[in-house]
Amino acid sequence: MRSAGLIKGGSAENAVVFSISKGLLNPPLRSPEEPCRHKVLDFIGDVSLFARSGSQGLPVANIIAYKGGHSLHAEFVRKLSSTS
Q1: Is the dihedral of CA 63, 65, 68, 73 positive or negative?
Q2: Quick check: 14 pLDDT over 70?
């Protein structure tokens, strides 16, 4: 993806970096909710891989993700795919 110009790779200039002991390492944030917004957009993007005929990829459901991440989202989509 990098060679195709689709991603730049992670750096302090284009990522939000946190430390367990020190918190936010590269302030300022664009908004106070930026980390949460990022997680929600990651989830929407990952679940959109589930797209089926006209569903736009998002199931009609209330979904709660605790400590979500790309691998958890991918597993969720695999389970959805195997049940439909």
Answers
A1: negative
A2: yes
